[in-house]
Amino acid sequence: MSTDTNATVQANVQEESGKKQSSFREFLKRLAKNKLALFGGIVFLLICLTAIFAPLIAPYDYQAMDMANKYLSPSLEHLFGTDQYGRDIFSRVIYGGRWSLTLGVASSIVSTVLGIVVGSIAGYFGGKVDSVIMRFIDILQCIPGILLTICIASVLGTGLFNTVLAMSFGGIWGTARMLRGQILTVRNQEYVEAAKATNVSEGRIILKYVIPNSIQPIIVQACMGIGGTIMGAAGLSFLGLGIQPPMPEWGAMLNDGRSYLRYYPNMLFAPMLFIALTVMSISFFGDGLRDAMDPRLKE
């Protein structure tokens, strides 16, 4: 009898595993059919690889100054020209991707993780806990996001870590609200009730049953949020509240070049081009990811 039971359990586990693998293959097929998503993913991957291997790709040291060759126009020797200190703009843009991409990805991850924690608590427990958390979120969302970010960045100061914290804070509440809505529809499902009936702990129910079945829209939002945080981080650096010169972050480069827009527009064009390409590629890939996860949305 015990042997039959074990065989049945093993068969159920294998069947469930097969269903998950089949669903994942279907997801990959739908994603592969979306040409814009593939294009966006490839472009973003190339930008990331360029930033990672910047020491091998950049033709010059991004900090090396050459006052005899400042304000040079784009040429084969300097693809994007040189800035007011004679530094090669192409090299600085490539190295700047390290800072901008780190800010975008790290801020998106931190805000998503914290949003999942807050949203899970509010959605699963409900009642007074939900009411208190949601009223607090309502108050914070009444404040314009960029204004809140600027205020936090002003208090914390400049630097990579402080900028990540400032950028993350504004994204927590949208994630929390979205996940809460998903959990409200999941928490009363039969598998959750069955887990409760077998005395599974609340934390295990949330981690094993509730969050995995509510996480799809959060993944898409986190992916597309990377583009928004990259632009937000560039905006902070442009205002002097993010990464500080001489670090070649894209927003800081825009701030450096804005005074030379009339006579040397190439100083702004290069970082603007990379910001636009990065945000566009993430947007294309995020749209494709959303359609692949839930084909009904496209229909």
What's this entry about, in short?
With 299 residues, the protein is mostly helical. The protein has 13 helices and no strands.
Structural account:
By secondary structure, the protein is mainly α. Helix content is 75%, strand content 0%. The chain contains 13 helices and no strands. Helix 1 packs across helix 12, helix 4 crosses helix 10 (216-238) and helix 4 (89-125) runs parallel beside helix 12. The longest helix has 37 residues, at 89-125. The protein is elongated.
Tags for this model:
mainly alpha, 75% helix, 299 residues, 0% strand
Topology:
Layout (H helix, E strand, L loop, with lengths): L1 H32 L1 H18 L1 H4 L31 H37 L1 H15 L3 H12 L3 H27 L3 H8 L4 H9 L5 H23 L11 H8 L8 H28 L1 H4 L1
Helix pairs in contact: 1-12, 2-4, 2-12, 4-5, 4-7, 4-10, 4-12, 5-7, 6-7, 7-10, 8-9, 10-11, 10-12, 11-12
What would you report as the Rg, rounded to the nearest angstrom? 24 Å
Helix and strand composition category: mainly alpha
| Portion of residues within helices | over 70%
**Anisotropy-based shape:** elongated
